Amino acid sequence: MSTTLLRVLSQRRPASVLTQEAPRREELEAILRAAAGAKYDERPTGWRVVATSGQAASLLAAAMAGLTSVPTLSGPVPRLKGRKIRVLAAYRGSLQWASRGGVALAIIFRHHPELPQSKKDQRGDVYAARGILEAAFYAQGWATAWSHREPYDRDVVREFYGLDEHEEILGWLFVGRAASNNIPARAINLPPRELEIRYM
What we know:
The structure is a single chain. A four-stranded antiparallel sheet has the order 1-2-4-3, covered by helices on one side. Helix 3 packs across helix 4. It contains six helices and four strands, in the order ααβααβαβαβ. The protein is α+β, with helices and mostly antiparallel strands.
């Protein structure tokens, strides 16, 4: 049994603060493909990933705020009312959210109706990939933060990511380095979480 793997699993933790550094594309793809696992049968992969770099955070933020383009915030801001104020406020909040880390990974679940498993079971299998991804990035020296955020207009976000009728976003995994003021710090050895185990 690999003690290194057990240590990675036991010590992985979300980062409270991420830097803007991101994995190189080759490393990112290697981690994602490793998390997808081996092709041991002909079942299709139940998920895909869309990566948004920190430079494109404004595009993601605009989509999350229900906008099809990035608003101009420089210069004098005209007086706004009603929905325009709410949309602008939503964009500002989404921009802060989307700017976390060096890359945002949208984990997209794809339902395959032709499979015998129910949609619920297929979605559950894909949710399990989150823990594998977190451990894989942690093992390579990266920190992560998981987020599920409700968009202002789902249709705009669906178009932004090019989702079809069988796809949905489960959440976003933000990846970067753990900042120096991250809590808990990466170097700290944390005690194991309490877990009840019974034998019958």
